[in-house]
Every structure is written in C-alpha cells, then in structure tokens.
Amino acid sequence: MLGKIQKALSDNQAIKTWTIRHETIHGFQQYELKTSTESQREVTSELFTVDVLCDSENNEGKPGSGLGTVSLLPGADINSALEKAVLTAQLVHNEPYDFAEPAPIPDIELADHDYLEDPAGKIRGVLNTLKEITGSFPHVRLTAAECFGQEKTTHLVSSKGIDATQKDTQVYLQWVYIGGIGDSEVETFAEVYRRRISDLDLKEEAALRAQYTSDLLEAQGPPSYTGPIYVQGPTLAVMVAGEMLAGSLFQTLSSAALKYSGETPWDIGKSIFRGDVKGDDLQMWANRQLPYGIPSSSFDNEGIPAQRIALIQDNKLAAFIADQRFADYLDRKPSGDFGSIEIPAGSIPQSELQAGSYIEIAEYSWFNPSPVTGDFACEIRLGYIVEDGKRKPFKGGMLVGNLLDALADMRWSKETGFYGNYLGPKAALFNNLKVVG
Amino acid sequence: MGKKILTPEMSALRPDLGEAVSILEEKAPYGAVSLSSREYTRYLVDNNQERVMPGEPTAGVILTAFDGHTMREKGVGGFHRDELLKGAKEFVSGIHFEKNGKLDPGKERVEDFQTEMEHDPALVSTQDKLDYLREMNQRVKKIDSRIVNARVSFLEMREKTVFRNRAVDLAQDVQRVHMSIMVTAMGEKGVVMDWASKCGTAGLEVLSFSDDDLEKLVKNAVGLLDAGRIEPGEYTVVTAPGVSGVIAHESFGHGVETDMFVKERAKAAHYVGKRVGSDLVNIYDDPGYPGAFGSYFFDDEGLPSKATQIVKDGIFVRGITDFFSATKLGIERSPNGRRQDFTRKVYPRMTNTFFGSGTMPLDELIGQVDDGIYIPKVSSGMEDPKGWGIQVSGHYGFEIKNGVLTDKIYAPVGLTGYVPDVLESISSVSNDFDLSGGYCGKGTKETVPVTDGGPHLLMKVRLG
After folding, report:
1. Which of B13, B35, B38, B50 would you mutate first to test chain A, the one with the most A CBs within 10 A?
2. Which residues neighbour A155 within 8 Å (Cβ) at sequence distance 6 or greater?
3. Which residues pair with B298 in a beta bridge?
C-alpha cells in the first residue's frame, strides 16, 4: 500500500511536498488482581499517515503554505483520502515554509531486544517478578498490577528523499500496594513507563513503594513549614521533566512556536529566572538521543534527526526547540521534538544534602505547575519531617511555590538517575519552599 | 435499523458478528464482538497559524471471551470477515476457560442509535469551519491590546460502535463537538492565559459564543496579569458548577469506579450505606444526560445508558461498574463500561458526573459570605481513592467581601482537603446547574470524554 500512496502523491500536481509515515504496532497487555488474572489482551494495528504541503492564498491573495494530513487504514481508498488532504491544505493559510530536508539519521537505541524475543512471556515475567519481590515485604500486599508491552515499527518516506525506519519498544507497568486493614488501609500507586524491562528497576522501585506504604500507616497530619525541601528519584524527575506523556514547563516556554506567537517571555542569552540564582547554576539539555529515553527517536514525525540540544547554559536560554516550520519562520536550524531533559550531576553527595533538618516530599497527588508561570500548589501524599536523623512520615497539606523560583535556589546531588524522560541528579535540596498544613 | 449510521466496512461485517459470537461461545461461557471506529479532527486558528489536524483514527474488531474470572480479548485493526471468523476460532482455541455455565448477556435488544443534531459537522465544509474560527479569532483579539494570542480551536469526534453478544445487537453513531478559545496576555510580570469552552454530544449548534462571553474571557485573562497568590489557609469558598463537578469527579467519581473495589483501592467500599457528606450532597453519574459531552446510548459492553445515583442526601449508595467488576463483586451492573478505543480494555468509567441542584438562588448563596473566595474555573483535579485526599487546582479565585464578589483576583488557587470533611462542610447548594466537558484518564492513560458539573456550592476548605 505504501508504494500505491507514493505513486498517487507523486502524480498529484497540486502537492508541493509530502511525507508518509507507516506505523505497525503489536502489543500485549496483562492485568493481574491479588490472586487471579483479570484480563489478557493482544492488539495489532497498522496506519499510514500522510502529510501534504500545498501552496495556498489568504483572503487578500497573499501566497502561503497549507498543510493537509490524512490517516489511512490498510485497504482505505487512497485517492479520495489524498483529495481530502489536498483540499484541506489549500484552505489553510500560513506563512510559507517547507518540509524537512534529508539529513544523516543517528541510530538511537530504542528497542528492548530481550522483550522482542518473547513479548507475551516477558510481560508475564515482569508481573511474576513483581509478585516475588513483593513477597519479601511483609507489611504490604500487591492487590493489582497492569503490564503492557508494545513494539512499534515506523517507516518514514518523503518527497524530499527521506527514507528511514526505526523500531522501538515501550513497557508500561503500574501496581498497587495496600498496607493495613479495613478502614485504616493505605495504598501506594506506582506507574512507570520505560523502553526496556531492565530499566524498570523493579527491585529498587518496589522496595521504595513498599517502604512508602508502610510509612503511610504511621503518617501524621501535615506541619506548617518554610525551609529546605528534599526531593529524590521519580518524584524529582516529574518536578523537572513533567509527567511522562505531558511534557514540562521547560518544553512549553522554550517552544519556537510560542516564541513566534509572543507567548513566552524567554529569550536566547537571557536568564530564565525572575531573580538572582542563589544555588547551583542550571545547565540543561533537551536530548532526543538519550538511549532508551521514552521521548527519544532516531527521527521524529517530520523526519528531523535526533539531536542533543544545549537548552539552558548557566541559567540562560541557549536555544528554542523548533519543528521545521517554526525553524523556517525564525530562521533557525530545526531541532524537531523536544526529547528528554538531561541535567549534569551536581557536586554534593546525597548524604550531604540530607545532613541537616528538612522536609522530604516523597509523593504528590499530582505535581502540575502552571505551564506558563510555574506557580504550583500541590497536595502532598507522603512526606517526611527529618530532624536529627529521624524521619517522621506525614500526609496531606500542600507544597506551595513557583517552580522557576525553586530551581533558582537549590542544590543538585552528585548521584544521577534515569527515569524515562529525565537523566540527571537523583536528588535535590530546594532551600526555601513552603508546606501548608 | 433502517438508517445507515455505520461505515460501509462496519455494515458489511455486522451480519457475521452473530456467527463469531457463536464460535467464541463454543468454548467460552460468554462471548462478545465489538466493532469500534473512532475518528477526530481538530481545527485551530490563532494570531499566527491555521491548522487542520486529523487525529490518528482507530478502527478495529474486539473479540471478548469471559468465564467470570478472566476477561480475554483480542483487538485487531480493520474490519475483515475472514480474519473475524478465523480470528475468533484461533483466539479461543488455546485457552482453558473455567466452567461457569453461560454468563448472563443481558436483556434481548436490537436497536440502532444516532446523535440528534441540527447542524451535523460532517455536512459543513472545512472552509466554513475555518472561516468561523477566523471570525472568532478576530472578535477576541480586538478586545484588548494586551492580548498577544487568541487560540480558537474546534474538535469534532465521531464514534461508531457495534456491540453483539448472544442477546444484544446494538449500534450507535455518536457525534461530539468541543470548541475552546484560549487567550494569552503579556504584561510586566510575564505571561498569563485563560480560556472558555463549549461542548456537547451534539452538532455545531451548541458552540456559539456571545460578545459578553468573549469580553468576560478577555477581562479575566487580563485581570490575571495583576493576580496575587492567596495566603494559604482555611476559607469559606463558593465553587462554580465546573469546580463543583471536579470535586464530585475526584471524590465520588474515581473513588467509586468499582475496579477500585476489586483492587482494594477504594475507601468507599467500606462506606456503602454510610454518611459521607452533608444532607445537601447528592451525586450522580448519567451517560444518558441529553446532549452532554460524556453521553452515549449504550456502554462498550452493550448496556443501555441510565443514571446512577452515587450519593443520596449525604449517604453513599453505590459505585459505577463494568461487566467484570460487577460480576466479581456480585452487584448490579451500571452502564459505565468504557474503553478508550479498540486497543484498550474496558474499565468502569465516569460519564457525566455531577452534584444535584439545590433550591437557593446564587446571589443569596454568595450573600451569606462575609469573607471568602469564589472559584469560577478549574484547571485540573486529582483523586485519592484510598486516602480520600482531594486536590483541585482552581485557575483563579475572586475575593468575596460582605456578601459581594469583588475584582480582587488570586491565581492559581489550589483546593485540598479530606473528602468527607469537604463534603460535610457543604452548607448551601444553589438552584442553578451547568456541565463542563473535558477528558478523563485512569492514571496517565485510558482517555475518555466526560463532563463534570452541578450547581454552585458553599463550603469550607483549605486553599493555597
């Protein structure tokens, strides 16, 4: 079918340039309850997505470019679909731009070859391992778990001469630990996306969640507090890099599209912070080349090769992240999709960051700062008051602040970790945040 | 079944579904076959760009085999007869099912349904849709010079579903529309934004915005340039219908989806028949609510839509179910079995979830507040089914002084608390009602369209 679509596109004189993305997906899903399997699913799908760029004119006759997109399932009527795409493209008026030119495409590691040997068996294996590990935590019980595995092959061809293929895998695992009995029960819910099963870090993650569950049973009410806040692991990764599939404040404010529309206050060479930096200087990369990063790819949907972009250097914005269109508008090199956030290791060992008195935020209900201002007020699911080396768990209350102000006054740990869309310090100490009890 | 509401491919395959069900039930105590086609297109016009973005369509067959213990499914893209019948045989051939007699397929029913519309978006040209968005963009951006962008977007979603089991042969063609206007303003302190939206399971007729709507939107957006942070603490709060709805959604919505009961994740499981809020609290979920964005005619397991009262006069009555969890718990099913698309399983999911209205006029309700906060709009919420914590992020809030709403604005306004405390604190319920549409996930996945709503509520909660 790919060849037929290519021919139909080439034969259509109204189309200036085009790309075709052919994706095939095969996945397994298993859902476990405490003592039984709730559901097993197997899914296959295939889709061709075609982008066409045509010349268009606005109401005043000013020439421009219009994009039309259409998705075809196998067996679909190619000609009528392309007619629709061309019609749409000719009705949409934008400043002129072009599609991506061919460029060398790096070979980024995206697939778990171990998973590909026996997908269904490996997914069952993950769940069995989780059950075995849980057996060593006497105070918690595993009441539900879901594990999905997916293999996706993407073949992209374009009239510009791009012809590239990539295969990736993704593993999703969620589980629930319950502690206590009856009305006093507590739970911890974990959700992890990775490309490789080995990156799930099952042993470490399960131990951490089991500890949280046990501590929730002892948790008191929240304090009212202003001072140092310690955050580590996946909780820190979400603060900096955002939820796995939603993106971050950095992704929003460094967008070339928002720069073009005047919706971001950030500018190249200027500090991203509102005031002086009192802690570690911020260095950050937007890295689509990160091996096994969830947002990584060899090429994105436009065919733009993976890059590792220096985004913030010494607290100053170093680049905007641009697709081909906004790169053309702003006269920059296209970077393509954002990728993962990478931050270099700090200089202080975790043990030193934890030397004084502080509050640790272990879990939020949802860390969701405003995507344009960074202001947040998030409920605390589990925290610890740490004084004289003793840890007292608490739950409830809110952490209140502004993410950019918080990052301007903090220290990063020397130890680093990888959490799917974040590679960087494993822990951070924010010097001055507020907990509202 | 006279109307052509399905795609030609779905119509061609539908007569064979009964045979496929029979093949499944040669081995499984219960078999079902669904055809699912979901398409959507988003149109966007702002100050700098125009786009028409069709989403990736999903279309496929779902084979379901259930023995009362494990729900097994196979989802295959496309609609092909040979693959359907051969696939059904292969699917059940290697599975050992628990002997469980024949599971109840529900009441016999053969019917087709289609969303009633005055203006079917499928019959309106792309040109006309874009022209309408261009006009809206022009209307908004000329209101105030501090507006740097006015992003107008329109979404049309078409869901066509066939569900077939031993007793049921149903089809539905559901049209959803959603339009939003997002305004970005720039000032000395930075960038702020606000939005307004309208939606429904309907045609284009529900998407009009008056000049007053647009002026109010711009006024609020520009007002945010001078917003302060609220001093954290406990406040007397009035929530607008959309905010009230998110409280219902996060408290007795997610927490009473009965897969949570099966997974031992729901504190509510211990509170059936017990008080969870003040006498004024009534919470419903209704997939049949006329024209609402979360509505449908039957759920993804073939159960016809009807309302479920979750909380009655402050007492928790029951949860919302899918087939699996209702079977497991031995309770009556509610029509809440929903799947994102054919690639995903069914879960018990909310549809249109809302507080029931009261009797008090809104001005009288606000008039009771000497010193408090009015929260008109919500940006997000998060559930905590086991701990009964609640987090609702208000986009902004206005001060209420001596029973009167002032222009003093705070942003953002986070609302948190312990669910029974929040619901018990509700002391007045207005006589108005509205629903706001959006999308809901389970964890970070399984997205489905929903609405939340109700009347204005007066309560005491912690803000920050």
Report:
1. B50
2. A2, A21, A22, A23, A164, A165
3. B304
Rg (CA), chain A: 24
pLDDT digits (tens, 9 = 90+) for B158-196: 999 999 999 999 999 999 999 999 999 988 878 899 999
Summarize pLDDT for A243-261 with one digit per residue, the tens.
Answer: 876 789 999 999 999 999 9
Q: Pick from A216, A242, A276: which residue ends a domain? A: A216
Section A158-171 average pLDDT: 98
Q: Would you give the end-to-end CA distance of chain B in angstroms? A: 55
Residues in A closer than 8 angstroms to B386, CB to CB, are 178, 185-187
Determine how β-strand B445-454 pairs with β-strand B352-355: parallel
Give the full edge-to-edge strand order of the sheet including B352-355.
B315-316, B308-312, B283-285, B352-355, B445-454, B434-442
What ipTM was predicted for this assembly? 0.89
Which residues from chain A sit within 8 angstroms of residue B57, using beta carbons? 47, 71, 73
- Of chain A, the end-to-end C-alpha distance in Å amounts to 61
pLDDT(B1) > 70:
no
Same domain for A192 and A235, yes or no, is: no
Q: How many domains does chain A have?
A: 2
Most A CBs within 10 Å, among B44, B52, B271, B383, to test the A interface: B52
CA distance A360 to A364: 11
pLDDT at B2: 52
Chain-chain contact of A375 with B229 (C-beta, under 8 angstroms): yes
Element (H, E) at B246: helix B241-252
Distance CA B114, CA B171 (A): 9
If one counts every other C-beta atom within 10 angstroms of the C-beta of residue A107, the result is 9
Which helix (H) or strand (E) segment is A256 a member of? helix A256-260
Architecture of domain B8-226: 2-Layer Sandwich (3.30)
User: Among A216, A238, A255, which residue terminates a domain?
Assistant: A216
Which residues of A fall within a CB distance of 8 Å from B380? Answer: 366, 368
Average pLDDT for A322-339: 96
Look at the alpha carbons of B23, B26, B27, B31 in this order and tell me if their dihedral is positive or negative.
positive
Same domain for A154 and A35:
yes
Name beta bridge partners: A24. Answer: A46, A153
| C-alpha distance from A5 to closest chain B C-alpha (Å) | 17
